[in-house]
Specification:
Layout lengths: L2 H16 L1 H4 L1 E3 L3 E5 L5 E7 L5 E9 L10 E4 L2 E4 L4 E8 L12 E12 L11 E13 L5 H6 L5 E5 L2 E6 L5 E8 L2 E2 L13 E2 L3 E6 L7 E6 L10 E4 L1
Parallel strand pairs: 2-9
Antiparallel strand pairs: 1-3, 3-7, 4-6, 4-8, 5-7, 8-9, 10-11, 11-15, 12-13, 12-14, 12-16, 16-17
């Protein structure tokens, strides 16, 4: 394989991995809300490309250190998806959900991995197979926690300043996913010692600590991502 072809393949692989839409497989939403008591929750995956894709789906824990088996299964777990076609994934809870907390939400990873051939212009030069994995959050919502309260949870965040640190407290039973988060117009950065996927999520009944972009902070501005993946109205509060 010459250097020119190697460069083409490497660039194509990067594009493929960074943008699942280019890879050909799209998912119907950016998060899954799983209310306790329902038989299943469905998600549609569609192959927007022309080539066949082999699709694999599963659920695992957000924290890699947590080796416990996920309380969710996906059917079908592995299937072929022809170009232009769609299929429905069925996310089903198993008996292990009985061990989950009843007073707050919990989150997991829903994984969709697709494997397809290289772009058409490379098909005559190589049979390299490229894979892309998309991860979206699956949020387990126990009975008694309603959709309306979830939509309002971000409004109840409490903020306090201590030196160069900003503490955000979530007194609700819901995860709050911050979308815009700034102090006096300067964006607040995610903590380096947290899992990147949840660094801007405030867990139920918990606190997160962030570095202040300005020690003379006067006003915090924020909004959140709702159940449908949309941004909520912006809130402001004096510090």
């Amino acid at each position: 394989m010459n250097l020119k072809l190697t460069g083409i393949l490497f660039s194509s692989a990067l594009i493929f991995l960074m943008n699942p839409a280019i890879a050909g497989v799209q998912i119907s939403s950016t998060r899954i809300i799983y209310p306790e008591g329902v038989d299943e929750v469905q998600q549609t995956v569609k192959n927007t490309g022309e080539n066949n894709q082999l699709v694999q789906a599963w659920v695992d824990n957000i924290d890699k250190k947590d080796q416990r088996k996920s309380p969710f299964v996906v059917t079908p777990p592995l299937f072929k998806l022809a170009g232009g076609q769609a299929n429905v994934l069925h996310f089903i809870s198993v008996d292990k959900t009985e061990s989950l907390a009843k007073d707050r939400e919990q989150i997991f990873w829903a994984n969709i991995k697709s494997i397809g051939a290289t772009p058409a212009e490379l098909s005559q030069q190589s049979k390299l197979q490229l894979a892309a994995r998309t991860r979206i959050k699956l949020i387990w919502r126990p009975k008694g926690l309603d959709k309306h309260s979830a939509a309002e949870a971000y409004k109840h965040l409490a903020f306090s300043v201590s030196g160069s640190r900003l503490t955000v407290e979530n007194p609700t039973a819901y995860y709050v996913s911050l979308q815009k988060f700034s102090v006096d117009g300067k964006n607040v950065q995610a903590p380096k010692d947290t899992i990147s996927a949840v660094s801007m999520m405030i867990p139920p009944f918990s606190k997160m600590v962030y570095a202040l972009p300005d020690k003379n902070a006067k006003k915090v501005t924020w909004n959140a991502i709702d159940d449908y993946g949309n941004g909520t109205p912006v809130q402001e509060k004096s510090l």
